[in-house]
What we know:
There is one protein chain. The protein is of the alpha+beta class. The protein has 2 domains: 1-33; 38-264, no CATH class. 24% of the residues lie in helices and 43% in strands. The chain has 4 helices and 10 strands; from the N terminus they run H-E-H-H-E-E-E-E-H-E-E-E-E-E. The chain has helices at 2-32, 64-71, 80-88, 164-179; strands at residues 41-43, 101-133, 141-146, 151-154, 156-157, 186-189, 194-201, 206-232, 235-253, 257-264. Strand 8 (206-232) and strand 9 form a beta hairpin. The N and C termini lie far apart (71 Å). Residues 1-33 have low confidence and may be disordered.
Amino acid sequence: xKTRVSITVFIAAALVILFPLMGLAKEKEKEDGKFEVPNHxxxxxxxxxxxxxxxxxxxxxxxxxxxxxxxxxxxPIENPDLIKMLxxxxxxxxxxxxxxxxxxxxxxxxxxYNSDMTNINWEYQKINTNEVNNIGGESATKMNYIQxxxxxxxxxxxxxxxxxxxxKKMMLLTSKEKTELPLSYSTVIGQNTKKxxxxxxxxxxxxxxxxxxPAVNEKGQVTFGEVYFQLKGTKRSLVVxxxxxxxxxxxIPIQDYVSFSFQVR
Length: 265
């Protein structure tokens, strides 16, 4: 009897442990596949008749002095432009400045961006329609994607905010890291861009092949603060005052990708 009870308890304990792990595994699998490119979305970077320039954001590494300055702050500083400015600033208090105290205001800056949500709209903007009329045809025919006109697709911030250029850079860096896709605030699909993928149009049918430019919808919060250099004798440090946060969103197109929708009537 004791043996049966022990086995039952063991099985129950194993199930309690196993099911949460299985749930976590499914959640992880779902999260990993979140930004997979669907089958109906194709890369046209080789076929695009307009050569898009890659919008590679400069990753600014803080210098030794800058690392020392931002190390003691409670608020992380991730703004590349602010880090670059700190790298280029030389502060060398005099060794004879015993008892000297001073504060130097260097401006109100967006300090960092924290992402709350990153989604992809694979049909962000319609860019092209191809049509084939096979009504009256005696057999099936095929149709392909051909870009009728040059099309520029641009992204933007969704609301007004101070220092928009700094914030766009931080949001772009975050979105690229999360999606691992070629993102840019501007992408162009050149006229006569073609793709080898073909679609079957049955006899006595009319077919449409619509093409869309996809884009990432990024949403989060920007932290702002007034930044000061503080000098105390021979010591130097950074001080951040009057910290505020503001919600922000952005649409960022995916460069050289096209989403297709094929319909037969």
